[in-house]
Amino acid sequence: MAIYDPSKRPEAAYDSHTHLNETEFSEDVPAYWARAREYRIMEMNVVGYNHVGNAQAIEIAHELEGVHAIVGFQPEDVNEVNEAEMAILRDQLNDDTVVGLGEMGLDYHWEDNPAPEVQKAAFAAQLDLARETHLPVTVHARDAFDDVYDMLKAHHVEEFGGVMHSFTGDAKEVQRFLDLGMYIGFSGMVTFKKSEDIKAALQVVPLDRILVETDAPFLAPTPMRGKMNEPMFTHYTLENMAEQLGMTYNEIAKITTDNAHRLWLDK
Ligand SMILES: [Zn+2]
């Protein structure tokens, strides 16, 4: 029996990381937003990754209720980062819709990504800006947990907070990021049969640090795996997490929404 039934007006949920600013959605952003709201995904963070994506995140957040913007430079786009771009980013933080910085981090998985030293310099500049402005960071880490951990610690992330988005480590790996005060974002990957490590991590994260995300259009959860992801699919991931944690849909929806509010909105 499904835990989730939209006709019963389930608890409001919050997709903490989605990319309605990606071209896959550009034909009809309001329609994807409306579908999500039909399923009671009432809030979402549209996350930027380069100067075009950042401007679009802000524009979408202005147009649609319950949408917040996060702006920053992801590892693959850090060649864009220079003084002029950092000045634009700094300016964007004054916009009311902007609730955090990101996505930012280190990704050593792709060979054609900028060199590690270039990635680190851009990550450091954004962490400095977060510390100065006291905004939480959305962190992308792939094949780079040691360096990401060292940099978050060196930049005193516990002072401004943040989330390890679409976390892919195991129960042991997650501990040191929790010790830094980080929240942990679970994407559709936590629903995949073979994601034993991520499932184990979910079991050890304190309930007041868990977030849910789609990372749409990527990583659609079971049973939509392989399809284009969208914010509405947050409900599948929540339903699956609820089962893994022995809770109801409404309980985990409320927990993850409250956590998102505490991290990004309650200032
Ligand atoms: Zn993302």
From TrEMBL:
Binding positions for a divalent metal cation 2 per the UniProt entry: 140, 165
PANTHER family (alphabetical): D-AMINOACYL-TRNA DEACYLASE
GO-annotated cellular components: cytosol
Residue runs in coiled coils: none
UniProt keyword list: Hydrolase, Metal-binding
InterPro entries: DNase_TatD-rel_CS, Metal_Hydrolase, TatD-like, TatD/YcfH-like
Lineage, top ranks: Bacteria, Bacillati, Bacillota, Bacilli, Lactobacillales
Protein's UniProt name: Mg-dependent DNase
GO MF term list: DNA nuclease activity; hydrolase activity, acting on ester bonds; metal ion binding
Binding locations of a divalent metal cation 1: 17, 19, 103, 215
Xref: Pfam families: TatD_DNase (PF01026)
Keyword set includes DNA damage: no
